[in-house]
Amino acid sequence: MVLEISATATFGRLKMWPISSFKKKTLAALLAISLAVSVLLFLALQSYMNWQKNAEDSIYAMSWEGFGPERGLYNFTVVTAMLDIGRGNWSEQSRPYNTYLLYMQRMLRLDVNMVVFVEPKGKPFIEWMRRGREKRTHIAVTTIKDLPYYRYKDRMAEIMNSPEYKKDNELVAKKLCESFVPEYDILQLSKLYLINRTITENPFQTKFFIWLDGGYGHGEDIYPKNRLWFPKNLFEFADRATFLERTPGVKNLEEKQKILHKLSVNAMPGGFFAGGSKILSALYALQVQLVEEWMSSGIVDDDQTAYMLLYYKNPTMFRLVPADWFDVFKLFNSETS
């Protein structure tokens, strides 16, 4: 009973002397400062971790001694690119060009035929990483302005700034780069162009081609430890374009295809795809038509949406394999040739 009376009395006293307005403002200011300091510390830590990762990757690249005797399988061609779209200067989703080059080093160690489309400033790095495989490497110096879809840059910007495009657009709401940077979409959509150009020139005289993003893996060592890639479950499907399929699945989004360019979905990633020369060239021709339709209809998006729409129109041209972003070497690599 005494405790109850004391507690009640104490509570009563607290009500008699409430926190002053000045103290409330002071407390709020302290909380705001504390939050700001926490955010700054987090950003500083993140910046340090990024710097540390880049430093480690730089050392890893510079310590590369080059390839030894040929041990790989050379009846296919890997196509990739590393072009600068100014991402290092973005306010959102920013990554410097050099960071992407360091990401790329792990792929460049693959003992395969490789065609690399790269900026002039990136060429020395490619040459360094491909030492010992000069005869298995074709470097095509290219910039974003050299890509055929670059002619749509102004039209894409016009679409992105239009009220109709912005209305109910998840990409705009999330400030995703494919909704406000034309160069990003141009580069992503150009993967089929680059692989078709490789098929036409065919420097290694192969019949099977694989696209891998230059930054595939985002710096993680997901590649074969011995740097040998003996593809399995690919060559026998040369008459179809093999793509990865992520949850929720491409077919489950078919009813939304008319608004797909406004949805934030990643069901059919474009970091990897593969196929024979005929199917990939045919797919590129269809994509050219699709992009032309987009420009006249006020639609713009990246390659993932384009692949999905092409699939809905021509499902027999595709082979979709359930997977996640970076599962290529888990699914399509054999230990021996």
Keywords:
disordered N terminus, seven-stranded mixed sheet, alpha/beta, WlaTC/HtrL_glycosyltransf, membrane, 337 residues, globular
Describe this structure in words.
The chain is an alpha/beta fold and about 325 residues long. About 45% of the residues lie in helices and about 10% in strands. It contains twelve helices and seven strands. It has a seven-stranded mixed sheet, with helices on both faces. The longest helix has about 40 residues. It is globular. The N terminus is likely disordered.
Order of helices and strands: HHEHEHEHHHHHEEEHHEH
* Spatial extent as radius of gyration: 26 Å
Inertia-based shape:
globular
Largest sheet: 7 strands, mixed
Counting DSSP E segments of at least 2 residues, the number of strands comes to 7
Residue share in β-strands? 5-15%
Provide the helix percentage: 40-55%
Work out the helix count.
12
Q: Describe the strand arrangement of the main beta sheet, using strand numbers.
A: 3-2-1-4-6-5-7
Query: Distance between termini?
Result: 85 Å
Structural class: alpha/beta
List unreliable stretches of 5+ residues. 1-17
> What's the average pLDDT?
88
Protein name: Protein HtrL-like isoform X2
Organism: Biomphalaria pfeifferi (Bloodfluke planorb)
Transmembrane segments: 26-45
Keywords: Membrane, Transmembrane, Transmembrane helix
